[in-house]
Amino acid sequence: MVTLYGSMMPKIPADDLAKIAVPTDFLGVNYYNRTVVSDDPTALPLRVGSVRPEGEYTAMDWEVYPDALRVLLVRLARDYAPAKLYITENGAAYEDTLAPDGKRNVYAAWSSPDPRPEARKVRDKIAFRNGVEVVAG
């Protein structure tokens, strides 16, 4: 990061590592959509380019990719091991109940222990089914 930011890099106090190494009581996650990036040498200072994957998007132009939330929660649980993990915000916005093909957009309760038939295809792609304890607030 120092190479990328150069003189814009803030000074980090020596005691910061000890402060951030303290175990957390909980970790709150605000999650709405994933971002897919690429290396772009012209996008300075970070060289981050934006990629738009093929697929479904919400009315707010957010990609619909539920497995990304599961991957994030599994990684957070594995890498940081918070005592509790809260999903403090998430969701998606749609214009109405009709899909572009005119069919009803049935919102499947993919996080339900007994999902509706429409959601069964993603049943095993749910974080709590992968050993992550997600606490309701």
Question: What's the gist of this structure?
Answer:
The chain has 137 residues and is an alpha/beta fold. Helix content is 17%, strand content 14%. The protein has a 3-stranded parallel β-sheet with strand order 1-4-5, with no helix packed on it.
Any chance you could write out the topology, listing elements then pairs?
Blueprint: H1 2-5, H2 16-20, E1 27-30, E2 36-39, E3 48-51, H3 67-80, E4 85-89, E5 134-135
Parallel strand pairs: 1-4, 4-5
Antiparallel strand pairs: 2-3
Strand order of the largest sheet: 1-4-5
Shape summary: flat
Give start-end ranges of low-pLDDT stretches.
108-112
Bin the strand percentage: 5-15%
Count of all domains: 1
Structural commentary:
There is one protein chain. The protein has helices spanning 2-5, 16-20, 67-80, and strands at 27-30, 36-39, 48-51, 85-89, 134-135. The strands form two sheets. A three-stranded parallel beta sheet has the order 1-4-5, with no helix packed on it. Strands 2-3 form a two-stranded antiparallel sheet. The protein is flat. It starts with a helix and ends with a strand. 17% of the residues lie in helices and 14% in strands. It has one domain. The protein is of the alpha/beta class and 137 residues long.
